[in-house]
Every structure is written in C-alpha cells, then in structure tokens.
C-alpha cells in the first residue's frame, strides 16, 4: 500500500525523478528519463511492482526529515531505543543516472534493513539479477541494466535483494543504484563523497541566485528548486509533474500522465524563472519551444515529449491496480491531440515577457509567429477542449477566447521594428478588438451580468479569473467583479477553489475531484489587483499551509479528506507559490521601493 501523496519527498537530477516516503520507501523512479518506464512502481501498486526501502528494523520512536539547505539532498533522521541515525538520499547532478542512499550513525547503534525490489516496465518485468562481485550486483531486463554497488553484502530472497546492517555512531554505509544500457560494459561506480559534495554545491549555487522576496523567500526557493528539478537538462523541456495516474479522485478514473511538456505549464514556469532573474533557464526553454513547434502551424500540439516528441499515444497498464485502487493507470496522454486555443496566448505572452525581461529577440520566433497567428486568426471562432482538457466534447470556452485575444494583443505590441511589422501589428490589433467584442457579447450569462464558462452556459470556471490577470478587462470592471463574486459563491470549498463544478457540468468523466490549487493562487492574485491585501495574504498563507513538511504540493487538495490529490509535485502549484509571493510582496512595498522589491 503506497503512502499518502503528501508523505513523499522529491529526489531529482534534471533528467529523472524519484519519490521517497517518510518511512524510507522509494516507491517511484523512472530511468533514464522522466517519461521512461518506471523501475519502481509501488506508488501505483504494491512492493512487488518495485520499490527500495531502507529503514530501521526496530520500532522508530521519532523521525524527521528535511532537505539539506536549499538542495534536493534529503536527510531523514531516525531515533530508536538503541540509538539515532540518518539516511541521506539524492540523485547526483551528472549524467550517471544514479540514486545514492547513505546511512550514518549519530548516536548509539541502529539496526537497518534494506529491501530492494527491482522491476522494469512499470512493475511487470522481473530482471535477471547476478552478483558481479561480493558488493556489486547487476539486474538486466531487455535493453536496461541497473547496477547496485554497496558497502554491505546483499543476498537474494524471493526475487528481492535484501541486507541487514548495524550502524554505530560515526559509522557509514552507502548504496548506489545506477542505470545504463544493458549492451554496454558495466560502468565503474562513482565516488560517493564527491558526488554528495558536488550535488549539494550545485543545488545551493542555483538557489543562491534567488532574490529576497520577503517573508516567503524560503517557500519560493523550494518551489524554484522543484521546478528546476522538473526540467529535462539535455533539452530545456519542463514536465508538468514527475508522476502518472495519481488520482484527482480516490478510486476514480481521473488519472493522467503528466510526465510531458505542456506549452501552458512550461510557459508559466518560464515566467516564474524570469520573474526571479533565471534567464539561462528561460533561454533554454525558449530554444526547446522553437524546436518543438517548428513546422506546419496546424500541427502544433498543446504538449510534447521531453525532446519535442509528438507521438504521446495514451494506453493503460492493466497489471497495475492503481494508487489506492484508482484505475486506470495511464501512460501517454490523448489530450496531446486536442485543440486548446489558450496555448497560443500563453506562448505569445511568454515570448513578450522574455523580450521585456531582457532576452534578445530570437530570429526564428518572428518567423514562427508569422505562420502561427494567421492560423489562430482562422480558428479562434471554433470550439475547443479548453484549459482543463475536457473529454466531453469541444465548447466555446470563454477562457480560450480570452487567451486568443492575448495572442494578438501581445503580438500587436511587439510589431514595431519595421513599417511592415507595424502594418502587421495594426492588423493584429484589429483581430484582438474583434475577439474582445465577441467575448463581451457572447461570454456573459443570460442576463449579461457576469462571465460564464462557455458561450450559452450557466456554469462558472476559475479560469475566468484570467480576464483580469491578463488585462483583458480591468479588475474593477463591474462585469468582472460580478464574475468574481459568483466564483467565490459557487466554487469555493473550505476557502479553496474548484476549477469548475464537475457535479453540475459534464466534462465527459465521472463527477468529483479536489480543489485545483493553482486556481486559488489566481484568486489571491486577483485580490492583489483589487487592493484587497489582507484577503490575498490570508489565502496565500492558507495555501502555504497545505505544503507537506518538505515544501511540496500536488495538483489538487481534498478539504474534506484533508489530503493531496493528483500528480505530484505539480508545476502549476509551485508556479502559484512563486508568482503569488512576488505579487503579494510587490503590493506590500512602498511605491518608491518597488523596483528594489522585484
């Protein structure tokens, strides 16, 4: 049985990621990439689907965990009746595709047990395991090999690899598990001490570049580190989450694979990086984007693989029972073939902010814009599946139309270098004005008082908060204020927002899900725009209080069950932590100090 979602901590090396629970069980790991078949899949099943547990044998009287400084090196400290010890878990920031676990005695003596269950192909394939020497073993299944190097002797037991070790004060033992292609000679093990020192230094150096943003700087840094860990270093692509099929409703079907690069999520991550001055990461993302979307604009997708792959076919893994029996377990994502108009606006806004933030204009970006915008001009009047990727059929979602307006509004603002550009910019402005008129005419409820989820609908949607956040209308516009009032009235659950009410509007799936955390961050941002600083601060503090003990958030939260839901950790949620902190901090700074406040 996997742990509660909020009980997991993240390990990562900017290529892949692992989740380790409070009790020392590594229940999720994909190698060599975020989207590779898992070698530990107990998160979506049980220990026989692969896991690596390292914990005391004796009853634990007290345990605690933390990241060492501003890093992704996790320290878990255990106290038993006989002593105290700690485990350091990390993935080296190099190309070794390794995961290292170090046990150190702190006081007295503590007996540990190590139980390693190696399974390839999402828990389906039991590998061939053989000892290469007394302290090294190899596990092979098809093209993959895992090599375990340890300072203690291991032995086989029922297709598990196990060891028992006693750690006294001042003693240290280590385990290193690394991935490599099975057809290559076994690579030598790494220097554990150098790997630890290098990893600590690299993460801390990255975090030290983060500016002070007031009392929430620690949360911002942890979210920044989390987003960095979700970046695929070889290409600059940014995954939406490191997991697949963690449910939005326990025992439900809302289980999706988020180990891909959504243009929307990555764009918002880009803005978070730039707002904190991380322009190298922003530039790497822009290069990834321009490579990924190159080609026929009609074939532009809402998401891509880590290197820009387009074939993300969705299928299920029937041998996995799912997290707390939430089925199906999915790999791939059929939403990659959906039409979602909002992505064009988000990308245009990001490219605009990149230029305003100081990134030089890319020679290919203008050419791509000249191809994409005419295509958006042809299709913006058509229905789409929207930001929430509904599977109940396309609609005329108001948020989608607003973001189509953003695409032309931002493009018009950038078209200023030549007379031809300015002429094109005037046309973009005309298209933006046309979209604006239609949304204001057709996007309101039957009485024309507030905006609704889709043309002709009576439903509300938290994405309508973007009407003010994008500048489509001023925040104090009466139509928006009435929309805000309706959103608060109909979508708030225990001070947190649903993205929409799945019980009353059909999205093609069984109703029921948690509150969608990024929507509550948007609400706090709107409060800042309206000058409601106390409300913004209170809501932000409420959201920070949902983070687990190591500062991580999932996609959703169930206020009734008081637990996290959805894939974890979620880029959207950590983007909210960063951007709302910046908005709240700037609003609290005196006007004369706002430039210094960031």
From TrEMBL:
Domain (GH15-like): residue spans on this chain: 216-581
The keyword Hydrolase belongs to this UniProt entry's keyword annotation: yes
Keywords for the protein's UniProt record, in alphabetical order: Hydrolase
Pfam families found in the cross-reference section: Glyco_hydro_15, TREH_N
Top-rank taxon, per record: Bacteria
Single GO MF descriptor: hydrolase activity
SUPFAM superfamilies documented for this protein: Six-hairpin glycosidases
Name of the protein: Glycoside hydrolase family 15 protein
Gene source species: Pseudomonas urmiensis
């Amino acid at each position: 049985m996997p742990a509660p979602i909020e009980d997991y901590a993240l390990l990562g090396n900017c290529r892949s990621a692992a989740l380790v629970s409070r009790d020392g069980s590594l229940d999720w790991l994909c190698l060599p990439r975020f989207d590779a078949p898992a070698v530990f899949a107990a998160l979506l099943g049980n220990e026989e689907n692969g896991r690596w547990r390292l914990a005391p044998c004796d009853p634990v009287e007290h345990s605690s965990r933390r990241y060492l400084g501003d890093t992704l090196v996790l320290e878990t400290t255990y106290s038993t009746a006989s002593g105290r010890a700690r485990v350091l878990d990390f993935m080296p920031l190099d190309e070794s595709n390794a995961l290292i676990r170090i046990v150190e005695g702190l006081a007295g003596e503590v007996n540990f047990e190590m139980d390693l269950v190696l399974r390839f192909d999402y828990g389906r394939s039991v590998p061939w395991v053989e000892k290469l020497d007394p302290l090294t073993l190899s596990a092979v299944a098809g093209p993959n090999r895992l090599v375990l190097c340890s300072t203690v002797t291991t032995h086989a037991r029922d297709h598990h690899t196990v060891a028992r070790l006693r750690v006294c004060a001042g003693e240290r033992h280590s385990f290193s598990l690394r991935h490599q292609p099975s057809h290559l000679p076994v690579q030598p093990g790494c220097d554990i001490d150098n790997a630890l020192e290098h990893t600590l230094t690299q993460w801390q150096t990255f975090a030290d570049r983060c500016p002070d943003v007031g009392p929430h700087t620690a949360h911002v840094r942890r979210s920044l580190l989390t987003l960095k860990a979700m970046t695929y270093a070889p290409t600059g692509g940014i995954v939406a989450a490191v997991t697949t099929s963690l449910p939005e409703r326990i025992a439900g079907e809302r289980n999706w694979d988020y180990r891909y690069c959504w243009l929307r999520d990555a764009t918002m991550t880009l803005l978070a990086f730039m707002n904190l001055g991380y322009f190298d990461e922003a530039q790497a993302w822009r290069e990834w984007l321009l490579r990924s979307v190159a080609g026929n604009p009609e074939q532009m997708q809402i998401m891509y693989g880590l290197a820009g792959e387009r074939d993300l076919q969705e299928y299920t893994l029937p041998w996995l029972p799912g997290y707390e029996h939430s089925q199906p377990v999915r790999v791939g994502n059929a939403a990659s073939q959906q039409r979602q108009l909002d992505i064009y606006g988000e990308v245009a806004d990001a490219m605009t902010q990149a230029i305003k933030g100081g990134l030089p204009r890319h020679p290919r970006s203008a050419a791509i814009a000249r191809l994409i915008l005419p295509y958006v001009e042809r299709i913006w009047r058509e229905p789409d599946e929207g930001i929430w990727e509904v599977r109940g059929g396309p609609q005329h979602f108001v948020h989608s139309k607003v973001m189509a307006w953003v695409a032309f509004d931002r493009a018009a603002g950038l078209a200023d270098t030549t007379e031809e550009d300015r002429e094109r910019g005037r046309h973009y402005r005309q298209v933006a004005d046309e979209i604006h008129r239609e949304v204001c005419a057709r996007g309101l409820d039957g009485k024309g008082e507030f905006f609704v989820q889709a043309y002709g609908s009576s439903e509300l949607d938290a994405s309508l908060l973007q009407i003010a956040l994008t500048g489509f209308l001023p925040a104090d516009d009466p139509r928006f204020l009435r929309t805000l009032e309706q959103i608060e009235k109909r979508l708030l659950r225990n001070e947190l927002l649903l993205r929409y009410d799945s019980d009353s509007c059909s999205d093609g799936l069984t109703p029921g899900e948690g509150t969608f955390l990024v929507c509550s961050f948007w609400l706090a941002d709107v409060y800042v725009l309206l000058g409601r600083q106390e409300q913004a601060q209170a809501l932000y503090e409420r959201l920070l209080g949902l983070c687990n003990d190591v500062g991580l958030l999932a996609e959703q939260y169930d206020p009734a069950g008081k637990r996290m839901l959805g894939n974890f950790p979620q880029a959207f949620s950590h983007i909210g932590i960063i951007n709302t902190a910046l908005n709240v901090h700037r609003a609290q700074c005196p006007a004369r100090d706002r430039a210094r406040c960031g």
